[in-house]
Structures are given as structure tokens and as C-alpha cells.
Structures
1.
Amino acid sequence: MFIPKILIIEDEIGIASFLTQGLQEENMNPTHCLSGEDALQEICKQKFDVILLDWTLLNISGLEVCKQIRSTSNINSKTPIIFTTAKDTLEDTITGLQAGANDYIKKPYAFSELIARIQVYLRANSKDHLVNSGSISLDLNTLQCFLDNKQINLTLKEFQLLTYLFEHKNRTCTRKEILENVWDIHFEYDSSVIDVFINAIRKKLNLDKNDSRLQTVRGVGYISKNV
């Protein structure tokens, strides 16, 4: 199960605590930064799925934080940003959007409305970088694999192999095809290397040979079927 990571940039402790608890109850993983300075450091450390940004921060304004997130090279430069602010004029809204924000919600707001807006961006993001099969989830941005919400450590090649099979569900992928697309080998080569990696993946994910998510097609290759 995928747990979205939400960055809260808010200098009011009470509001931040309320948001943190509420997001946790919605099965999300919030991280709170009290200042713009802290936030600009945090965005370089880990990838977030949505950023909640207060406009009126101390020292560095939320507007400036937004501009820096968008203008600098960091792993969150394209992460959706939702401004949360008491500013309510049309000019303020336009200014925030022009700074790079994706959305703008005015305080006070209903928590259910905030969740609905977050979900819009999570659904859009999931189409871009998540590949799922039952309880197995692959994040193509972070190269992380999750089984029942628990991270499983796959090697890069194991991750690439599983991703290829998941992206070509319900179709038998031949050994030759897998070698060409996962290993970039375009000549005669011992394809038993694939079996070694498949066995390692099955062991790490507790999959038996009959599991439809990773099945052997004898003499041909492998197939991942919808569950």
C-alpha cells in the first residue's frame, strides 16, 4: 500500500499539530517544517507527494519558498504545492499561482476540503510514477518497492525487472525480450541469469511459483497477471 508523503510548512504549532494528526488519520505520512529555511533544506533530502505551504512564514515568506522550490534544482521542483493562507484577494491568489503554486486554499478551511484537494494531486501523481500489482507497489521516482505497506529492499536490477513485468501485465514477456529491455543485451546470452533474479524477487516478496503476479511460462519467459 502506498503511503503519500506530505510536507507541511507552517509556523503556527497548533495548526501544524492539527494537520499532522489529521493527515496521519488519513493514512498519510506528514513531515512538518516550522520555517522556510528548514523547508528548503528538507526538500533536498526526500521526495514528497504534496507540499502544504503557509504564506505568512517568518524570515522567508511562503511566497519566496515557493519560488525557490520551483527555480532551484531539487527533487521536489515539480511536487504539487498548495498554499494555505488567510490572504483572500484575487490579486493574492494570482500572485501565489504565478510563483509556482498549483492550488490555493483560504483559511479557515474545512479539513475535508483540504484532503479532497490533496487527493486530486495524488491521483494525478499515481498515474505518473506508481506501478501496482495487488499488495505490491513500485515507486518509479524513488525506486522503492512496498509489500503490504512495508518497504522491501530490491537491488536496482531486481526493481527494473519487476517494473518491466508489471508494466506489461497479462502478456508473456519472452526471455529474449527481457534481456534486451532490462539488461540491454542484444546478442545470444545465457538467459538463466533472469531465473536467478526472479527467484531472488520471489524470496523477498514471499511469492510462490503459482502467484499470478510473477509466473513462469515454461520455455518462453515470464508473465505478471492482474490480481
2.
Amino acid sequence: PGAEVWLPPVGWWQVVAAYALLGTLPRLRRAAIRGAVRWGGLAVWGLLVAALLSAGSALPGSLGPRLLVVTVLDVGQGDAILVQSPAGRALLVDGGGEVELPGRSDGSERADGRRTVATRSDVGARRVVPALRRLGVRRLDVIVLSHAHEDHVGGLPAVLQNFSVDLVLEPGVPHLSPSYTWFLELVRRRRIAYALARQGQRIDLGGGAAAHVLWPPQEGERQEAAGQVNARSVVARVVFNRFSVLLTGDIEAETEAQLARGEGLQSTVLKVAHHGSRTSTTPLFVDAVRPLYAVISVGRGNFFGHPHVQTLRTLEQRGIRVYRTDRDGAVILRSDGRWLAVETVRHARPR
């Protein structure tokens, strides 16, 4: 404790202003020696520089274009997606979690029936919290947990312990996960507003941006996939003018088929469901979304062989540009509501 001090990121405007102030220091010092300026003036000058550099990125929004920024963090075999609105509001969807390896005894298994085991690693403290701070996040308006599996919820307790959060949304499907239990306990202890995510909800992100919850359906509706954690993942469509990104959690083919029967799926960017598993990203669903770009959050050399070649083929046959966190690192989407710029961190760390 106390061995690490976090300072907010410094913007270009702060660097320019700080150098301008530093340029006045010799003249101010000579004036102080002559008595023209009291030495107390130098102290005020120093405080001004310190305040300028500690201001973080509080002002840049008014100095540049109003952008929606969606960052798919590189958390290995898991999901963590940050949405920053033109109004400065922040929405975090999932928080990454543990990596799964052969030998697990909790009932989780691969498609071929082989068991898996989890090796716990606090991705939240090690990766997610530092990344949020580097991106200028000071507080989170909303956290959406897509579902309670460890690779999505595991990093969220650390996030709750490091940031003020206004609202938590999650599907409410019970799952035996220590991280999920601790996450809910922290929400209760910190008296964070909590609600079940349901179809039809709208999250106002300010500046003309919003997130629309498309899944799971309202209680009482017919649910063929009821009781399945992946199938009840929260699906949300983030919209800013003409730009949109569809966040799909770990939904699989059955849920995709139900969503494809409705309207309002078409999106500029698709966050590919379930890390590119062959159980998701069906041609029917992709044709309903009609994305120009797809992002797959996946761990390098993962045990499951994600993304599956069939998933990649489905996307490539439709001319969709694919980004992958295992190859590209974090993927950053910036849009002014009409145009989209995609940036990647090329040198992803092996995981």
C-alpha cells in the first residue's frame, strides 16, 4: 500500500501550457530577486503548474471533435469493453477474468467433452484497472455484466474497488462463481444502484449516444434458452448517429436466431460472440447485422482453438474486416457519428 501513485493522463494542451509557464520561470525568478515580485508569487506559479498537470483530461472534450470511443481491451481469453461517450460518460461491459486450462472439475467442458480447469489471475487489477486509468476514466456511469462466467466477471471486483460506479446492470442468471458472488456483494456493500438488464432498456450516454439492450427478453416472454448462462447474455447496441456497435456477450446460435427474427440489429461493428466459437456467429445472424467490421476478443494460443475457422470463414466470405485482440492487442474504435477510425495496439503480449 502506498507504493504506487496514479496520475491521470496528460493531454497535449496541458503539455503546451506547462512549457509556456516554464518559459516564464527565469523572468519571474529575476523579478523576485529584484523585489518586483514576492517569492510567494513563485509558490503560486508552482501550484498553477501542478494543478495544470493534474487536471487529467477534463478539458479536451471541448477542444476537439465530439467522439464516441469504444475500446475492446486486451484481456486474453475474456471480454472487457469500455465505451466513452462524447459527453464524457463511461460504460464498461464486462471485466475479463481467468484463463481456463485442462482439468477443471466444476462441470465446465469443451465441445468434445474434455474438462477444463481455471488458473486464477486478477486480470482486473493487473490489466483492466490500469487500462481504464490510462484511458482517462475517473468514474464509471454504468457497468454491464453480460453474464456471470469467470472470463467476463472475474476482473469486475477490482474495478468496483478502484472506481466510483453509479449503476450495475446484469441478466441475473445464477451461476456458481466466486467472482460473481463477490461482485454482487461489493455492489451491495457500496450501495451501487442495481437492476436486471432487459430488452427495451435504453442507457443514455449523453452527447447523442445511447446503448439499447436487445437481450435478454422481458420476464414472462417465451424463452427457449432459459436457464443457460451464455444464452441469456446481455446483448446491447451502442449507437451514435450513423455509427453503431453490437455487443453480444457469449450468445450462441439459438439466441442469435431469435434475435435475427426481430429488427434493429444492423450495426457498423460486430463484437463477435463467445470469442469466435463455432457455436456462434451464424450466417443468419451475421446477415441480419451486416457489419463492416468485426472484433474478436480472444486469448493468444488459447486452449479452445478460438476463433474457430468456420467463424472466420463466415466473416471473410462477406468481406468483413476482422480485428483480433490476440493479434492486434486492444482495438480502439473512434467515431464522430459518421466516420469511423480504427486503431490497434499491434504488439499484443502473449497470453
